[in-house]
Amino acid sequence: MAEIINLRQARKDRARVEKERQAADNRIAFGRPKKAKTLAEAKKAIEVSRHEGHKLVGPDSEG
Prior knowledge:
Elements: H1 7-30, H2 34-53
């Protein structure tokens, strides 16, 4: 025999799970302080500039 479920409670559970997932996404997106964000951006900029500096430019290539 099938288990009887309360649809109202199932909807609330589903909404609760969705709300927790959204909260987890927000913690990732907005959870870092400004100092940490700027430090990460500066490190990324340095990394990109170092990578660009190691490119080989041949005599027939433009740039």
